[in-house]
Design brief:
- With 71 residues, the protein is of the alpha/beta class.
- The protein is built from three helices and three strands.
- Helix 2 links the parallel strand 1 and strand 2.
């Protein structure tokens, strides 16, 4: 339930702005919003708290070359 609400809130916030092409997802190492950002045509830089989080981001980076990075 929380994740669905989180995504709805993020969508509502994104609806308020236009022209975003890149987003920095701080604390996004679990990739909860990565798919939403990609569906919106954005590139995503994810700042995760641990290297292990990179494994959650990797499938998105492989399926969207050049649009997803992890730092």
């Amino acid at each position: 339930l929380f994740l669905e609400r989180q995504e709805r809130c993020a969508e509502q916030l994104l609806d308020l702005v236009s022209g975003l092409s890149t987003v920095c997802d701080i604390g996004g190492g679990h990739a909860q919003l990565t798919e939403l950002f990609l569906r919106r045509g954005m590139s995503v830089t994810v700042h995760g708290s641990a290297e292990i989080c990179q494994s959650r981001i990797r499938p998105f980076a492989l399926s969207h070359p050049g649009r997803v990075s992890f730092v």
